[in-house]
Specification:
294 residues; alpha+beta; DNA Primase, Chain A; 5-stranded antiparallel β-sheet; 10 helices; 32% helix; 24% strand; disordered C terminus
């Protein structure tokens, strides 16, 4: 299938074929929980007329080909080949207007050091103390649909912020990786999927900062950017702390295949758990139980 033919596949039809059902509909838009991650609230939307998508958690969007590339981690030719499986799906509507990228719907009110007791309690529930978190995250206050919210904010390399509170996971600005420390002349770099796992590693190792430079992907879709940086820095060893799920395993395989450096899968440390943070929470719970009953 060529590119023009692929663009005729309707996103709504493709999502239904893949087992994704919309959570709500508004005008010409359908909202879904993101196909790219687990989440409770719908942050992924498609425009039925323009046949384009935007993921507010990822901070990215595009056409149906971009979607297939993102979902299956494929290059452009690979995505077109994948469309041979979708040739019988409903066609997209014909439009003359070019698709435009939706704007970020968050309005910044203020960005301050971490002080909210509610956010500190949220971190404590994840096994992370405010003392460990404070040097790495800030507190952001923002407006969305005329309502005031606040969340933890972890800065990325595009001067955006990865946002998290008990009810919301998203991004202010553009989605990007976060680099902690200097990669130049480093022999080792540690890679994490998300910043909660990075902070979990600091708690587990009882460190105020990582013993080596670290890259936080903030999304499995950012793996390619991290690989580019590692290649340019000529890193000798790469320690991976990815989730122990299908996406994390696929990403580990990609890093091992594309990097000449020694790539070590450190997720064996938390085998039996979804990610580093789940392992940390369980470990702390077991320690508390031992103190009570030991």
């Amino acid at each position: 299938m060529n590119a023009q033919q692929a663009k005729q596949v309707a996103l709504a039809s493709l999502l239904a074929h893949l087992g994704f059902a919309p959570k709500k509909a508004a005008n010409d838009e359908l909202w879904y929980t993101s196909p790219f991650r687990d989440e409770a609230d719908a942050s992924f939307k498609i425009n039925l007329k323009r046949n384009v998508w935007y993921d507010f958690g990822l901070g990215q969007g595009g056409n149906v080909i971009d979607f297939v590339q993102q979902l299956y981690n494929l290059d452009f030719p690979g995505a077109l080949a994948k469309f041979d499986e979708f040739s019988n799906l409903a066609p997209a509507p014909q439009v003359t207007a070019a698709p435009s990228k939706p704007k970020n719907d968050l309005e910044l009110i203020k960005l301050i050091p971490l002080e909210s007791h509610a956010l500190k309690r949220y971190l404590q529930g994840r096994g992370i103390s405010a003392e460990i978190a404070a040097p790495h995250v800030q507190e952001i206050h923002y407006r969305r649909n005329s309502k005031h919210y606040f969340a933890l904010a972890f800065q990325n390399e595009n001067e955006g912020y990865e946002l998290r509170n008990p009810y919301f996971k998203g991004v202010y600005g553009r989605k990007a990786i976060s680099v902690i420390g200097e990669l130049a002349n480093a022999s080792l770099v540690q890679i994490f999927e998300g910043w909660i796992d990075y902070l979990s590693h600091l708690v587990y190792t009882k460190s105020a900062s990582a013993e080596a430079p670290a890259i936080v992907l903030n999304s499995v879709a950012m793996g390619g950017r991290a690989i580019e940086l590692i290649k340019s820095a000529e890193i000798k060893q790469v320690d991976l702390y990815f989730d122990r799920d299908e996406a994390g395993i696929a990403l580990t395989t990609r890093f091992q295949a594309e990097l000449a450096a020694m790539v070590i899968d450190r997720s064996t440390l938390y085998e039996g758990y979804k990610d580093f943070n789940d392992f940390l929470i369980a470990s702390r719970s077991n320690q508390q139980s031992f103190r009570l009953h030991g």
